[in-house]
Structure prediction request, 378 residues.
Amino acid sequence: MAIPRAAREVLSLRALNRAMLARQMLLERRRLGVTQAVERLAGLQAQAPNPPYIGLWSRIEGFRREQLTEALRRRRIVRMSTLRATLHLMTAQDALAWRPLLEPVHQRGLLGSTHRKELEGLDRAAVIAAGRALLGEQPRTGAELGQALGLRWTGREAASLAALIRNNLPLVHLPPAGTWNSHQGAVLQPLGDWLGQAVQAAVATQEDMLLRYLAAFGPATLADAGAWSGLTGWKVVAERLRPQLRVFAGEDGQELFDLPRAPRPDPDTPAPPRLVAEWDNLLLSHADRSRILGESHRARVFTVNGIVRGTVLLDGFVAGVWKIERDRNRSKKNIATVLLEPFGRWSKADRDGVEREALDLLAFSSDDEGERHAVRLA
Prediction:
């Protein structure tokens, strides 16, 4: 028998905040392998190469950059378009299982893009088959793929032809693309070809995805699950799972789903200062971000040109942004500075805690043993 909404336990904003931080390993760093951590986090958004490394540094005790690079090279983790039709690092198993379920997201993204008009009247199945054959011959960059297809479909934009392939085939960005400080164009290869027999394909359902989402980001509404994945149809999925889920109410009366045994710490649990990476899924996986980010600060984090800035967490909530600046002084010594931009007045204890994290981040990210490190408040 369903529990009436009025009788459900109400979770405060702080309770939701602490639950998510615990699952995201931001209340305390954990001793985990890289593949296990990426699986637990349900992927890391990865438009740029360095933020996933920083995302793992903020969550894993003693994390070293070469651990993630090695996992990418050994094909345990892959970089490809998945959730929200955006680039993510995923475990090989999750990529194989989830990418077919995310096909509607990629199709919808293509229809809503600037390529839609250019692809009108095209025999898409023929183009996709040709693109698959070309990539079967050898991995290619998107530009190379588009140019090769353009030789057959003359008069069509090469970029649009390549976009059609990218949105219809699961394509891995092969290392070194996606590794630390690598900014070269990605070479693409179909997921199955890259993994070969190393990983067996798993059959997954949208129910499986909802359970994984709640484990990483819950308690959450169905709108939150849609914001995280880009998928629709979560109401039917939740109704099938309802008997095995726990249902709470939010402060505004919204229905929140969760796993019965998932961590839900006391709302007064201390949350240490943390520097969160650019484009971190912590800020991108809920329709209502108020559990981590106040609406008044949204425009300072999500920029007009599509950047999601690195953020500072104080008492579990976004309290500022950060970035690293590197240059040389007059004596030609390399200097790296974390520039902090608080959204309000920080206490001395908070400022000291953030500065310690910032100096640790500079040590983690430095490639120069003689580099000088500094922290500055804007």
Observations:
- The first helix runs from residue 13 to 23.
- The mean pLDDT is 94.
- The chain is about 35% helix and 20% strand.
